[in-house]
Design a protein that fits this description.
Elements (H helix, E strand, L loop, with lengths): L15 H14 L5 E2 L11 H12 L12 H15 L8 E4 L2 H12 L5 E6 L4 H8 L3 E6 L10 H7 L4 E6 L12 H14 L2 E5 L25 E6 L12 E4 L3 H13 L6 H12 L3 H24 L14 E2 L9 E3 L2 E3 L2 H12 L1 E2 L1 E2 L9 E4 L4 H16 L2
Parallel strand pairs: 1-12, 3-4, 3-5, 5-6, 6-7
Antiparallel strand pairs: 2-8, 7-8, 9-14, 10-11, 13-14
Helix pairs in contact: 2-9, 3-9, 4-5, 4-8, 6-7, 10-12
The site of pyridoxal-5'-phosphate has 13 residues, from helix 4.
């Protein structure tokens, strides 16, 4: 007998990025030599000082519940970071630490979005934004962009997507999946549109430390009229190679939003894991950390340069140069309609499936991010893996 589930469960499926990663890992466990461009996490180890702080916390017995929204020292360190790096003045009471930025975003979206509300999301988008909005009963409204515009939307297109039912806009610069970075001028134009409309802006800044070509990061909350409308979202996963520690946070001047998010957390997960909070504190306060982060950033920049160069040399592949994060989003649609290695390639899903099965290269189909002409590759892997994987992809595409 199958008993019914809640109707809302039908609006949510497994994250396609985690699914590809899991499939690639399963193949690797079976002894297949897979090049995995699917993963959305740095391949670097968590810095030693951070690990030591986590171990030290466990040894000192810091293994009990903490205040739901995080230990005061960590919230103070986050407030200091936001002032130092982003020019934002948040009191620690305006900060909620959660179990990863994904959890932070979920809490905020659940606290802001009612059934019938619209949330504007630039496309291609990170897969979990529309999934969370739909889970809350809201409707995602996409603003399309393409590789030709560097996957950046125009402020006028944002304005045109806003309706009387719009509750929020989600911005993510640098972006997953495209690596697109908005300039200070573009951010100022978005701020003008958003403040004129008087709607919330969720600013997901998780890739802020991974910027190339001298790009700099602009937190939209720092722009005129935005401090009370922006909810700044960030976390430790990408900047500090701390994906498994699950630490993210929000900052907002809205005491009612901060309270709602805290209440939701208090009735669901309680505090983020206690030793991880102490490790997160070390990541923000260790004086050697900026150099460590810079070493990882510059390694990513070298990998980005190599992967873009190699991909653009593959016949029928067009890859824009992204300004940040660790993803590229090449257009592979010129291969659709072909039979490659005996497999019909019709779209990004069949392209990615055939590439994994026949060439043992894992990429994520662009359709998962709202752009079926592309696939997403993460270059959070060594240059050797990049060279090997793109060579295997090129050889695969030469087959008929
Ligand atoms: C755009 C974006 N936001 C948020 C997250 C969530 O990161 P975490 O929950 O590990 O902090 C990710 C992770 O892939 C991401 O790519």
């Amino acid at each position: 007998m199958t008993l019914p589930l809640a109707a809302r469960t039908s609006s949510i499926g497994e994250s396609p990025t985690l699914k590809v990663s899991a499939r690639a890992k399963a193949l690797a466990r079976d002894g297949v030599d897979v090049v995995n461009f699917g993963a959305g996490e740095p391949d670097f180890d968590t810095p030693g000082a951070v690990c030591d702080a986590g171990i030290d916390a466990i040894r000192k017995g810091r293994t009990r519940y903490t205040p739901v929204t995080g230990i005061p020292e960590l919230k103070q360190a986050v407030a200091d970071k936001l002032r130092r790096d982003n020019g934002l003045e948040y009191d620690p009471s305006m900060i909620v630490v959660s179990c990863g930025a994904k959890h932070s975003l979920f809490n905020v979206i659940m606290s802001l979005v009612d059934p019938g509300d619209e949330v504007v999301i630039p496309s291609p988008y990170w897969v979990s934004y529309p999934a969370m909005v739909q889970y809350a009963g809201g409707t995602p409204v996409f603003v399309e962009s393409s590789g030709a515009s560097g996957f950046r939307i125009a402020p006028d297109a944002l304005r045109a997507a806003i309706s009387p039912r719009t509750k929020a806009v989600i911005l993510n610069s640098p972006s997953n999946p495209t690596g697109a970075v908005y300039s200070a001028d573009e951010m100022a134009a978005f701020a003008g549109v958003i403040s004129h409309a008087g709607i919330w802006c969720l600013s997901d800044e998780i890739y802020e430390k991974l910027l190339y070509d001298g790009n700099s990061h602009v937190s939209i909350a720092s722009l005129p009229g935005m401090m009370d409308l922006a909810v700044t979202v960030n976390g430790h996963s990408k900047a500090f190679a701390m994906t498994g520690w699950r630490i993210g946070y929000i900052a907002s001047t809205s005491s009612s939003l901060v309270k709602a998010v805290g209440n939701l957390q208090s009735q669901s997960t309680s505090n983020p894991a206690t030793p991880c909070q102490y490790a997160a504190l070390a990541a923000l306060s260790d004086p050697a950390m900026p150099d460590t982060v810079e070493r990882m950033r510059s390694a990513f920049e070298r990998r980005r340069n190599r992967i873009v160069e190699l991909l653009n040399a593959v016949p029928g592949v067009k890859c824009p140069l992204p300004g940040g994060a660790f993803y590229v989003m090449p257009d592979v649609s010129s291969h659709y309609g072909r039979t490659v290695a005996g497999v019909q390639v019709a779209d990004s899903m069949s392209f990615a499936g055939a590439l994994l099965d026949k060439a043992h290269v894992a990429v994520v189909p662009g359709v998962a991010f709202g752009d079926d002409s592309c696939v997403r590759l993460s270059y959070a892997c060594s240059i050797e893996q990049i060279e090997k994987g793109v060579a295997a992809m090129a050889a695969f595409l030469q087959e008929s």
